[in-house]
Amino acid sequence: MKIVAIANQKGGVGKTTTAVNLGCALAERGQRILIVDLDPQANATSALGLQEIEGDTLYEPLLGSGSVIDKIIPTRSERLFFIPADLDLAGAEVEIARMPDHLTRLAQALSILRLDQTFDFVLLDCPPSLGILMTNALAAADEILTPIQCEYFALEGLVKIVRVVEQVRDSGANNQLEIGGIVMTMFDSRTNLSAQVVAEVRQHFGKCVYNTVIPRTVRLSEAPSFGKSILEYDPRGAGAYAYRKLAREFTQRHGAPASLRAASHTAASEIL
Ligand SMILES: Nc1ncnc2c1ncn2[C@@H]1O[C@H](COP(=O)(O)OP(=O)(O)O)[C@@H](O)[C@H]1O
Ligand SMILES: [Mg+2]
Questions:
Q1: Residue minimizing CA distance to atom 5 of ligand 1
Q2: Which of 76, 132, 158, 216 has the fewest Cβ atoms within 10 angstroms?
Q3: Residue 186 in contact with residue 238, Cβ under 8 Å?
Q4: How far apart are CA 228 and CA 222, in angstroms?
Q5: Per-domain boundaries in the chain
Q6: What confidence category does residue 52 fall into, taking pLDDT thresholds of 50, 70 and 90?
């Protein structure tokens, strides 16, 4: 099992969109996935239409008074499980800050998942700030996956993330943390800017950057308001195609056997 923090200190770069749609696409390929919503804004929770479902957040496990196992809920997708968030998580952040082991609360809470092999990947949808919750995510993760918008200042943002990863390693909170990959999002093929930014980021970060680039499509921004992933909302569109391609590249990078557990989605097999 690998824990992957989907993180970037900047908001609006596609973290939640990537957590939800990469998670669904990986589950479709046969991987057993747990998405954890770590953002008190709970965007991933509502993007999957799970805000109405009676589900608990990580609040108690983070404070050491409950198991994460009890917080996991199923989703409409086979093999895809979820831990929701709500605004109360912001309160946990304040309370954790007073604890001596405040950087490793999440790592401890998730450690039980490492004991059995129920999940292949745990994806942490991080909040857009360098607060306690994001630091906890980086301390708990095996690797960080950073979505970045194809916009000016992309490189500056990445340099900051690399620095944060180094700080987490140096702090002793997690000296194993790796940069698992960079995903370029919201690529606009009508402008030169997007292509220039991708070229520039590839030049500096080389193999770290996923070959798959996520296009800007209205469908990707509409899907969350229907509580659906892009695979459900527009299964044959460019957004679904891109996230399926990203999932394939992700499993290849991790040496995970693709579709061993019989992912029998016709649209997927047609497209891929
Ligand atoms: N590839 C895309 N094309 C169009 N809109 C997108 C795309 N990716 C994300 N969005 C939209 O951009 C906004 C920010 O994305 P989101 O994933 O919530 O970012 P973050 O979690 O980093 O704050 C959302 O409204 C989302 O629907
Ligand atoms: Mg988000």
A1: 221
A2: 76
A3: no
A4: 9
A5: 2-260
A6: confident
Task: Tell whether the torsion through CA atoms of 205, 211, 216 and 218 is positive or negative.
Answer: negative
Q: Which of 190, 221, 246 to mutate to test the pocket of ligand 1 (most atoms within 8 A of CB)?
A: 221
Q: Which two tokens stand for residue 11?
A: 């908001």
Q: What is the rounded average pLDDT of the residues 211-219? A: 98
- 83 alpha carbon – ligand 1 mean position (Å): 20
Which numbered ligand comes closest to the C-alpha of 40?
2
| CA of 266 relative to ligand 2 center, distance in Å | 30
pLDDT given at position 116? 82
For the residues 205-223, what does the mean pLDDT come to? 97
Q: Could you tell me which CATH number the domain at 2-260 has?
A: 3.40.50.300
Which residues share a beta bridge with 148?
A: 184
d(CA 159, CA 173): 20
Whose alpha carbon is nearest atom 26 of ligand 1?
Answer: 221
pLDDT tens digits, one per residue of 70-103: 999 999 999 999 999 999 899 999 999 999 899 9
Nearest CA to ligand 1 atom 15: 14
**R_g (Cα) of the chain, nearest Å:** 17
